[in-house]
Design a protein that fits this description.
Strand content: under 5%
Mean pLDDT: 78
Helix content: 40-55%
Number of helices: 3
Distance between the termini: 34 Å
Largest sheet: none
Structural class: mainly alpha
């Protein structure tokens, strides 16, 4: 099982790093998208996507001021 507590501690700075833990799996959710991403980037299909996601990014930024 993945070290969820260790990864959480590392993400908030309590640990320097956590060793990767690869486990066998029959399926990787949305794995096809990960395989297709390099091709999408290479042909430029993702150019201009920030125009559609700008509202989402702006909402996230405004709700989490630094």
């Amino acid at each position: 099982m993945a070290d969820v507590a260790g990864r959480l501690a590392a993400s908030v700075g309590e640990l320097d790093a956590v060793a990767p833990d690869f486990i066998p799996a029959l399926d990787v959710p949305n794995g096809g998208l990960l395989c297709a991403l390099p091709a999408l980037l290479a042909v430029g299909l993702l150019e201009g996507v920030e125009r559609y996601l700008a509202l989402y990014w702006r909402r996230e930024r405004d709700s989490n001021p630094r």
